[in-house]
Amino acid sequence: MAPPPILSLALPSETGRVLSIQSHTVQGYVGNKSAVFPLQLLGYDVDPINSVQFSNHTGYPTFKGQILNGEQLWELIQGLESNDLLYYTHLLTGYIGSVSFLSTVLKVVNKLRSVNPKLRYVCDPVMGDEGKLYVPPELVSVYREKVVPVASMLTPNQFEAELLTNSRIESERDGREACNILHAAGPSMVVITSINIDGNLLLIGSHQKEQGLSPDQFKIVIPKIPAYFTGTGDLTTALLLGWSNVMPLNSILALVQLLSPFQSFIIINNWSFCYRRNILTT
Interior CA angle at 137 toward 228 and 176, to 5°? Predict the structure, then answer.
């Protein structure tokens, strides 16, 4: 008797299948909790692997939980492979806390591309922000030398783009040049998700459709909201993956589609937070 069909493969999503390797928290929305549901709403079939499982995000005074190591990650991949479940159209990665785990992620990229050579790897190289690293320093060279060359799309913030290009970004022109440097290293799509220049917040996107051609580049001015949020970068990268796949030749429209729900989400949640604490009244 033939084995029963594997429904996730026999009935694939028309949009794509994503393997998302990111953090997870019981309370709060960061990592996979910020990325999985929006991608599902956009029609993707998403399989999450939690690189860590914490009680809450690390911005709190304390947190408890478990950290997945490279061997455990590879064991999960082997389990999927043994059941013919390794066909993915996209790999999405976010926060990774050790060189050994990141090295295993590179093995995962190779394994997934051996099954589907057209796999798109969307990498948010989470290393730090505003001049401060919050991963071990040795991860920077691994990202720069090994991860960037195999990524299809890269979504660093200003500080991370500076680390990856060994350059300073102090103007819009610097941001565009950083994108060019990253294109030369590998990814065809680069989005520097936030650049703070003279108090103005910019997003700079760049799409190089063919190696050697000049990329299409653009900027979007992002309104500042006077509050602190976590998980916004994870949500941004997830939405970029989702919309760029629907409109692969028009990154500008993809980002316009991204920013409308994203800004609304932030504004509504900021208003709700203030209202609950009697900072705002009806």
Answer: 65
Cα–Cα distance for residue pair 182/125, rounded to 1 Å = 12
pLDDT digits (tens, 9 = 90+) for 94-124: 999 889 999 999 999 999 999 999 999 999 9
Cβ neighbors of 80 (< 8 A, separation 6 or more) are: 86
Distance of alpha carbon 48 from alpha carbon 33, whole angstroms: 9
Strands 216-221 and 45-54: unpaired
What is the rounded radius of gyration, in angstroms, for the C-alpha atoms of the chain?
A: 19
- Of the candidates 45, 124, 174, 234, the residue annotated as catalytic is 234
Q: Is 129 a catalytic residue?
A: no
Q: Is 20 exposed, middle or buried (0-12, 13-18, 19+ CB in 10 A)?
A: buried
Task: Give residue 91's pLDDT.
Answer: 98
pTM of the model: 0.86
Measured between alpha carbons, how far is 46 from 199 in angstroms, rounded to an integer? Answer: 37
Of 207, 198, 127, 197, nearest in space to 165 by CA? 127
Lowest mean per-residue pLDDT among 13-17, 30-34, 125-129, 181-185: 13-17
Residues paired with residue 129 on neighbouring β-strands, in sequence order: 132
